[in-house]
Amino acid sequence: MTIRVLLADDQALLRSAFRVLVDSEPDMEVVGEASDGAEAARLAAEKRADVVLMDIRMPGTDGLAATRMISADPSLAHVRVVILTTFEVDDYVVQSLRAGASGFLGKGSEPEELLSAIRVAAGGEALLSPTATKGLIARFLAQEGTAGEDRDPARAERLETLTVREREVLVQVAGGLSNDEIAERLEVSPLTVKTHVNRAMAKLGARDRAQLVVIAYESGLVRPRVE
Q1: Sheet holding 51-55, edge to edge
Q2: How far does Cα 74 stand from its chain's mean position?
């Protein structure tokens, strides 16, 4: 299957560069370009995009608002948003994940990293960009105070619907581990881990693994560590 990619960036030169890169791959194609968030949200539906490469800072409707718009539309539940940001250590990163983004990627990433991120996002496995550390989300959430007074009680209550094993798997997902790594640690098969992850996503209303991570921290299941 060909991955349908939408490019959202207010800089035409960057969009052109991304288009050449993406269209050079046999398993993906650029189906549209947007220069602002509102246009990106509209084209995501119109062009039936699978993945949106979304610049965080755009005039008018920015990438954060556009991500919320896409995430809030049930008809776009299959669309994965990968945030493009100049600085990965950015206050907008966690806001983007909370808004429904599947992950983020620094604009300084290598071409291979960008292509890999698109494939990972299309597969619903997006979490962090290849160059980001596994504890980045935890550090941001610690700075935002979600480990304490801002903990979301509603999400904490929803955790009670998870089985003991699903909670164990969720903790490992929040630690940035892959299904294979979790399987090895819990001494089960990768397929079993995938089943638990999918069930946890369904029960918690998470779009993908990135949302599971945010829920794990915001509910207090996992405590952020600040290095």
Answers
A1: 28-34, 3-8, 51-55, 80-85, 103-106
A2: 17
